[in-house]
Amino acid sequence: QVQLVESGGGLVQAGGSLRLSCSASGNIFSLYAMAWFRQAPGNEREFVASISRNGDSTHYADSVKGRFTVSRDNAKNTLYLQMNNLKPEDTAVYYCAARPGLSSPRATMWSTDWVNYWGKGTLVNVSS
């Protein structure tokens, strides 16, 4: 089992940047493929980005490609999401997600039902 805690959210103007972190504890972090999801008010939770267990493979939703970068530091048990050129439509609660087993899941595998562990989320609010 793994516990996930997100941080780094906040209020930012359009065009600005934020870096989210997700700190993991309770089990060996490198055993988990990781992902970021987000949920805007009134919308379903959606996939944003994922990274393989050793960090050599990443996938992104089309809406964030070229603007967001997912990374991880297995020595520090931490997942990151660097968000640049933020837009008002990026406003949402961002969740860290973990799934053990597969080393490098395809992006299409990352549904909310497929995730084993969730953090509680951190709010990102992008003003226009």
Question: What labels would you give this structure?
Answer:
mainly beta; seven-stranded mixed sheet; 0% helix
Helix and strand element order: EEEEEEEEEEE
Strand content: over 45%
End-to-end C-alpha gap: 40 Å
Q: Name the helicity range.
A: under 10%
Structural class: mainly beta
Spans of at least 5 consecutive residues with low confidence: none
Overall average pLDDT:
96
Oligomer: single chain
Rg from alpha-carbon coordinates:
13 Å
Q: What is the tally of beta strands? A: 11
Please summarize the sheet with the most strands: 7 strands, mixed
Shape: globular
Counted by DSSP, the helix tally is 0
Write the layout of secondary structure elements.
Layout: E1 3-7, E2 10-13, E3 18-25, E4 32-39, E5 46-51, E6 58-60, E7 68-73, E8 78-83, E9 92-100, E10 117-118, E11 122-127
Parallel strand pairs: 2-11
Antiparallel strand pairs: 1-3, 3-8, 4-5, 4-9, 5-6, 7-8, 9-10, 9-11
